Amino acid sequence: MKKIYYFTIVLVLGIANSCNTKNENVIHKGIKKIQNQSVTVEWDSTVIDIFYTSGQGNFFMKDSIITFADHYYAKIYNYNCKTFELTSSHFGLGNGPNELLRFFYASPIWNDTSFIIINNNIDVSLYSYQYQLTRKGIINFHWTGQGIGEYDSPKVYNFMLRTDLGANIYKYDEKNLIIPIQPIVHYVCENELITKKHFKKSHIFGLLNINTMEVNKIFGHYPPLYIEKSLPHYDFFSYTFNNNIFYVNFPVDSLIYAYEFPDKLLYSFGFECNDIIRKYTTSNVINNKDIYDDFQSCGLNTEILNFPELGLFFRIYSKKMEDLAYGMQIYDNTTYDLLADIDVPSFVHFKLLGYYDSYFYGVTMAPRETDNNTYVTFYKIKISL
Q: Residue 165: how many CA atoms within 13 Å on its side-chain side?
């Protein structure tokens, strides 16, 4: 079942309405270069039935292989990106030597030849791409159940919980992995009240020693927007590394931040996304109703991806989560100029996966289910700037 969409989008220079206040001490790089410029995008979609899966899991892509990590059945399914045919599957639910327990998330280690299974936020397993177990253990944050105000200690942090939009893992050196973390509010905040100090002091990354499974170093920070507006429901983020530089974008922030490892803020870049609604609820406590209400009326940045070999940097965003209207920004990853801001044609929870052999690839993160079938749509995308 295949359908090809062809779009030629004429991009018009718009007015930047940044959601945040820029830090005057930080350089903002890039300009809008989309006036009177056109971009051609060819969307080739293929719908396949993955009835043999639970439909509950996450997708990622490395080289020419698209992987679906099935959380419920504890299996890894690999697809050829050119044909979208299932090429192999591994593991399964159980306690045997080639089986797994139900897991929380799976991710490649992007600059290595391994991938990681996050079983329940702190229980992790590392595998080679020959699907051989190489490491297994419990992440040790040195929790004590308390630590009011101790933001510089790992003991008040956990692996980033909201991984629906992606939680990349990178190798720092032979011993350490870089993992995303977030503070545990009831450990670190007195009476669980979230003040400006919380976001000013909190860190967002940890170094995980894969030999000892200890997190001994934490680094990275929330941007100025979180200090000005208390948005505790949006403490997750998307990020990507390029050598010793890492880029971070938060779901509610129009800016993307570039850091030199570990904590040196170099510059920001990025312009507000087209037609995105950012009327978020501020609060000093965690209230699930607030984020549910926001999801009915607001949009979010969902991911950033860097393609150094192409000289391009992408940001995907939802204009309004309830309407499932998505957009895609394309930046020059050297000058950080905005080259394009285009509509993604009505794809449910669209995720851009990667690039291979002249094409970008994407997927619908949420499968469409019937009584007997589970459908997912893959996208083969040709972009001409």
A: 24
pLDDT in tens, 58-86: 999 999 999 999 999 999 999 999 999 99
Question: What CATH number did the domain enclosing 90 receive?
Answer: 2.120.10.30
279, 270 in Cβ contact below 8 A? no
Number of domain units in the chain? 1
Side chain identity at 160, as an amino acid letter?
M
Residues spanned by the domain of 82: 2-384
Q: What is the pTM of this model?
A: 0.91
Q: What pLDDT, in 10s, does the model give residues 357-384?
A: 999 999 998 888 998 999 999 999 999 9
